[in-house]
Amino acid sequence: MKAVASSWLRLLASARSTIRRLSPLVVLLSFTAGVLAWAQSPPPSPIKVVNLIPASLSGETNQDSEPFLAIQNENPQVMVASAFTPNPFSMTGNAPVYVSQDGGKTWVLNAITPVQRMTCDITHAMATGENHPRGDLHAGTLACASGITLDESESNDVSLSTTMNVQSTRGNVDQPFVRALGVASGDRIYVGINDFNQASGRTATIDVSVDGGATYKSIPIEARKTAGQDGPSVRPAVANDGTVYAAFFGWRKFDGKTATSDIVVVRDDAAATGANPFQVLKDPSDKLPGRIVVKGVSIPWSNAPAIGQERIGSTLSVAVDPNHSGTVYVSWADKGSKGDIYTLHVRSSTDRGSTWSKADLPGTTIHNATNVALAVANNGVVGFLYQQLAGGRWVTHLAQSHDGFMTARDFILATVPADQPVEQFLPYLGDYDYLLSVDSEFRGVFCANNTPDFANFPQGVVYQRAADFTAKTLSDGTGNLVPISIDPFYFSVPVIP
Amino acid sequence: MKISPLFIGAGLLLALWGAAKAATPQVTDRAALATKSSIIFSGTVSQLAATSFAEVPKSSQTIVVKVDAIAKKPAAVSLKKGDNVTVEVKDASAFQEGTHATFYTDGWIFGSGVAVKELGHEVGTAGAETVPAPPVEMKAHGQDPITDQELLDRMKASDFVVVGRVTDIHKWNVPKPKSGAPSRVTEHDPDWHEAVVEVQSVLKGGKVKGSKVIVRFPNRNDVAWFSSPKFAKNQRGIFCLNRDQSTGVPSTKMGGQQVNVYTCLGHGDALPISDEARVRALLKNQ
């Protein structure tokens, strides 16, 4: 049975329970009134939460963790999402992505990445410079077989089954993170990478292409001595005027359990097209490129479950106001205060990264949380997506603020048991999730326990896969029960005024 | 002797069609097709140059088929009698509305419905085929059984296939390079361990030097390695081994001698000893 969950069903369930206690006449009146009320009820909540697993894969039980999202800005009905979802029919077929062509209402799985079966990292972006209405999807993928291989690849039409065209490939790297900007001359692509091929352990790197991926140039962005390497997360952010920021963890010490790290931001004002990109933002302390937002924070590193069933060690996000490139936000997780496992912080700059708020923005020190993703909407409102372990549950928040978090609105998108299902591998939910803004919406993806239970999704939810919200069970579409697992969820939330 | 479900499925198919038709010279092709196909079903063509759900690109090669019976499908795929499936066929002129056929296919697009690509088909009279017994469910998950074809492919790509017993397990640290470059810290760190495997017989690959081999394996449960076999002391099994091309240190000293080191990284590279007959049969019949 294909189940579509919405607030309507909740109303029905509630009505049924009330009706049982009332006389037949009252029942009739109530029902009539109810129907009239429904007919005149306001439109459904503008907040949309959708389970990405298609109906035809209702039998799957994979740990589809670490989600990512790309939106075709010129045609935002088209989106591509990804997760650690294996090819559903072949051990040797291509790893798939999820594609929506109707603004996120429905999603299909299309096996088009250049990686066999399943990626072990994937991020992507859809720029619009080359005028492909269902492209251009630019992806950075890691294939993990006997070694780890990065592919930087492109699809001009994500609705087709054509395997993405690999434009650049190399090994010895970690965690590609793709952003892109479409301009008249083509697509500019920025891939944050922890590149172990770089000299002297200065591994934080941005791969830059200014010709739609035809050629890439690897640009090291770490100027200081490291503890042999930087942290895995290297995050670019691109404004409409071509300003490109990148944030990274400058690891200064590492003892196997804790990294002592600077939070560093670099900037380029010419889309990284010049001779010496990412050099303009210098720190006053040593005059070296890369502004140190915070110096020497302690970041716990655990490649085993540390917060709930999730690992920790490299949570970072940076976002720039698309229309006012001087305003930029950065968020990271560190040890925080005593007793906390992992604490999020958000800081901001309004002078192009030259100076930063001295303390966390109000209300943005979030204890026992991870998977931060920031985005700034066209009206300057900043979105702050994170997942917090609270009361034995993973709670997914989207906070929004138009005044630097002096005031904020918090939307809880999901609150699910943290101990179920049992992890199949790490990461359990992901080393990241993702948030973007388009027009007047924040759109994003997160992963969660997929039990079909309204109480777990306070804003409502739609499942494509077969689900029974009354029994709170999943089935394979032919009536056989399917165990719960981790699924990716897409959401859309209106930007606050 | 353990026979894989896919083998049974392929046999079932042969039996079914064998009953419906006289034996044909294409039996071998049919079996090969069945092995290669991830989704096999019989059905009736209901529309030409059409698709069964919106997200599938429509072309002259796409037809809609109403499913009569399913012989093989991945467990994750929801497909049942009466469903409409989009098939991208090789030669659309071979089909008309009402054509009844068995379709050997691979998955294509999964949405509100299923779209597949034809690998082959057999035209038959509607109703001629008996509805098969419960379909063979092929799982694609990393921890699920490997199919015969996949196992054969793995063995072909292996330097050695051995029957053996694990006598020791220990952690192995990648030596620091002479250049002084530090080791890497990533979430995908494999946490290499070494298993000492006492070789009892060699099924493929000639003589192994000595009676024991060193097999490196990732002990980490990271997404990059969770499908790789994890070894345990006293484990007996069949191991598909390749010379170590992953760690950068392809040999080591054992018993005072420099010996090659092997890895065993792929899904299905370590099989329980109960699979020995299956492995021997596959190697013999390849």
What does this structure look like?
The complex is a heterodimer of chains A (497) and B (286). Chain A has 497 residues and is mostly beta strands. Chain A has one domain: Neuraminidase (6 Propeller). Chain A is built from two helices and 34 strands. In chain A, the strands form nine sheets. Chain A has a five-stranded mixed sheet with strand order 28-29-34-1-30, with no helix packed on it. In chain A, strand 11 and strand 12 (204-209) form a beta hairpin. The relative contact order of chain A is 0.14. Mean pLDDT of chain A is 91; it is low at 1-42. Residues 1-25, 126-134 and 139-143 of chain B have low confidence and may be disordered. Chain B has a five-stranded mixed β-barrel with strand order 1-2-3-5-4. Chain B is α+β, with helices and mostly antiparallel strands and 286 residues long. Helix content of chain B is 16%, strand content 37%. Chain B has helices spanning 5-20, 27-36, 148-157, 276-285, and strands at residues 39-48, 62-74, 84-88, 100-110, 114-124, 136-138, 160-171, 192-204, 212-218, 236-243, 251-254, 257-263, 270-272. In chain B, strand 8 and strand 9 form a beta hairpin. In chain B, helix 1 crosses helix 2. The longest helix of chain B has 16 residues, at 5-20. Chain B folds into two domains: 5-140, Beta Barrel (OB fold (Dihydrolipoamide Acetyltransferase, E2P)), CATH 2.40.50.140; 150-174 and 184-285, OB fold (Dihydrolipoamide Acetyltransferase, E2P) (Beta Barrel), CATH 2.40.50. Chain B is built from four helices and 13 strands. Chains A and B meet through strand 5 of A and strand 4 of B. Strand 5 of chain A pairs antiparallel with strand 4 (100-110) of chain B.
Strand content of chain B: 35-45%
Overall structural class of chain B, as computed from helix and strand content, comes to: alpha+beta
Q: Tell me about the biggest sheet of chain A?
A: 5 strands, mixed
Please, what is the average pLDDT of chain B? 85
CATH architecture of chain A: 6 Propeller
Q: Could you give the distance between the termini of chain B?
A: 18 Å
